[in-house]
Fold these 2 entries.
Entry 1:
Amino acid sequence: MRYLTAGESHGKYLAGILEGFPAGVKVTKDHIAAQLRRRRLAPGRSARQAAENDEFEIVSGMRGGLTTGAPVCVLLKNSVRTIPRSSSVPRPGHADLAGMLKYGTMDAVLIRERASARETAARVALGSFALRLHELLGISITSKVTALDGQDAVNSGTTEARILRARRAGDTLGGIFEVTVGNLPAGLGDFNHWDLRLGSRLAAAMLGINGVKGFEVGGGFGLAAMGGIEALKHPELSGGLDGGMTNGRALTLRCAVKPVPGLPGGAPSADLRGFRKKLSVSKTSDTTAVFAAAVVGEHAAALELAGALLDKFGGDSIGEILPRVEQWRKTTKRTLSGL
Ligand code: EPS
């Protein structure tokens, strides 16, 4: 299974193609729309999201509400379709400067249009298919934001107020989100090669989300400060992976999201034509992207794990896959309960 996206932030459409997804999976438009809404209306978002409605069309790979096994193509219409005027002022901390150098252009807009996190809407549309497959296999994927601006974001009840305060101050906030996956069959992924280890595949998917700068599995960086005797008393700290394979426990992934670098009040930059100092002002940036990124994280993980399931169990339709997974669960449960 593999997927690709295309499209710019203010182009006509974003497109997503999902290839190798099994036949016979019921996916409703309502389900996809609900997932897109979760991403779009997450806390901390900019006015851009109020102007979008994420209208979409499934143009291939489905018939009668079921996937056919053929490549699924989803087209998402951008409501905001005015491509900003060319600009030779890169926004610090964004893809602008490195992208301008890389592609040999003086126009930062060419870079911004594709580097924008708007693209993650296409990933969520495709991830919605993977989420449905997991649901049919009894696998749950959830996320929560555990920290905002270095403080607890779960129990404090002050999240909205902190976002508002930052917005009023013209500032942006970073945070941490956690994705938890329950009831995954043991033995997904492989220890034999570094690129087959499930951790490396998940790391690529999660670090591939715009603004993600850190990634941990289970106890993550905290494990480095523990002794082996203590660590073994807490098997949940393995985060559900041993030797690059699922071990039958809940999978826990954690990502650090940087504060959005585009500041509404402007950030010091320079016009690359003439090298005069100039402010780069971002009117459409989010105050924090961590809540939206958490939703994207669920979908990015869902896509990777769907691929890993298909690698292990094969099968072209849900009718083939489901009994194989059930049989495997019975077998592994017997072994694991004997330990
Ligand atoms: C986003 C769309 C973007 C930003 C934000 C997220 O809109 P635009 O491309 O018009 O700026 O609101 O993107 C960023 C934070 C970013 O760094 O690009 C979206 O739909 O998620």
Entry 2:
Amino acid sequence: MIIKNRLRRMRSNEFSRSLVRETSIAADDLILPLFLVDGSKQQHSVDSMPGVFRLSQDLLLKKIEDAQNLNINAIVLFPVIEKNLKSEFANEAFNENGLVQKTVRAIKKEFPDMGVITDVALDPYTTHGQDGLIDKKGYVLNDETVDVLVQQALSHVESGADIVAPSDMMDGRVGAIREALENTKHVNTKILSYTAKYASAFYGPFRDAVGSKENLGNSSKETYQMDPSNSNEALHEAELDISEGADILMVKPAGLYLDIIYRIKNQFKKPTFAYQVSGEYSMLKAAAINNWLDEKKIMTESLIAIKRAGADAILTYFALEAAEWIKSRD
Ligand code: PBG
């Protein structure tokens, strides 16, 4: 049999497979999410996220040192706010001496080159667990929320945050934050917009980690986060975020939304990130712990798939493990 085009030829050796490999992951494509608690020497495990901890500032700084040694260049902070600091109007969100604000200052002092990303949303700070302020019926108010988000974002930036990441899905918040940043001469502060953030059940373990699950109760976030059935709407969101001054567009979750990553990257050609969320991590981790799947392989395959779809960088709870693996391979 004569077959001129044998695709198995290039697959027959590791050297030739690696020469033609189209997608690869480097540690500097990864962003490490970190859960932060007040106090010192605190390290609490999160039951639904094996291997992930809530850390107090002292231990968090050590973790950041590990990340830096593994060539991870950016982290994102998620605070666990004590019950007595939560309120209906989320005032703690923009306290200049709040947990996020003081920790950002400490991180930038010790690791000036580490990219520090902060989450702009009110859910850690509200007694009702919603990402914004609510009216009497529990509806999340858009414009009133945006005013608070702007104050929150400015307080992060004044503490030294390099990138603010609004994860709330209010309309017009990117534009409002951009205007406030321009007015205060923070012209190089970047906005990483959660452009297409879906109302996903895969955020469950995250809500355990930050302790917003009980606050949220049976309420949902469907009046502001996107419907998982929609795809064109994500492009509309992206168009608006770009026009409002976003520097980076993000899709969340990642692995089940590869089509959205692909379409956004393909259409706009802008920096596009993806968030492999808590539930994605927990599913893979649980299967690995049970020895049903090979952890290193599924972790790598899941990250490669997200990059292949078009993501420039990935937020992932696997960041440290993946970076260790990348280093051991080099
Ligand atoms: C809240 C926020 C959430 C996540 C990041 N920021 C949860 C939510 O919208 O309820 C989820 C991240 C994850 O699941 O890993 N603004």
